[in-house]
Amino acid sequence: EAGVVQSPRYKIIEKKQPVAFWCNPISGHNTLYWYLQNLGQGPELLIRYENEEAVDDSQLPKDRFSAERLKGVDSTLKIQPAELGDSAVYLCASSLGQGGEETQYFGPGTRLLVL
Amino acid sequence: DAKTTQPPSMDCAEGRAANLPCNHSTISGNEYVYWYRQIHSQGPQYIIHGLKNNETNEMASLIITEDRKSSTLILPHATLRDTAVYYCIVTRGGTASKLTFGTGTRLQVTL
Description:
The structure holds two protein chains of two kinds.
Chain A: E1 5-7, E2 10-13, E3 19-24, E4 31-37, E5 44-50, E6 53-56, E7 65-68, E8 75-79, E9 88-95, E10 105-106, E11 110-114
Parallel strand pairs in A: 2-11
Antiparallel strand pairs in A: 1-3, 3-8, 4-5, 4-9, 5-6, 7-8, 9-10, 9-11
Chain B: E1 9-13, E2 18-23, E3 31-38, E4 45-50, E5 55-56, E6 61-64, E7 70-75, E8 84-92, E9 105-110
Parallel strand pairs in B: 1-9
Antiparallel strand pairs in B: 2-7, 3-4, 3-8, 5-6, 6-7, 8-9
């Protein structure tokens, strides 16, 4: 069974440029999460989707970050414009979304470097 | 969600058991203990979780004390590939479960 797929794996951009990250969750997983991981720290939740609905985006910096999950499957996280401080790893995770013990499975992440 | 406390680093000889402790003294009755690990340049990998009883799978064993205020993750025969940062996380079940990662324990397995 394929795991969570993310692309690109690495991205280097100049500040003020836009950037987008793509995530394909595990087949059949209804809940999708985006996390941000700064160097030397643990991941922090940015947004959580249940199907196509963003049910928790309280930690998403909405002035420059946006996300969408059309049709409740794939998701895209966008930053526009990027700032130097956005350099980090962006992780996507998914879970079944059926309640109970919801184990989250993570993708490999996209490593962003803003110059 | 309850806060967890882990030692920042541990060493283990290859082939020996690695015992990683975690304190979660403020855990609530409906909160699970989850363990993830993160190998360098990879996403976090799910290892095991439990509520009250001890659990075992192909990767590890989880021992939870009777009062649930602490737990130990056991890797029975550590290999070099087990070198990683191990995160102990306490969270409620359900889709609203939020994984709050601390700084974890950096396990170094050596020859």
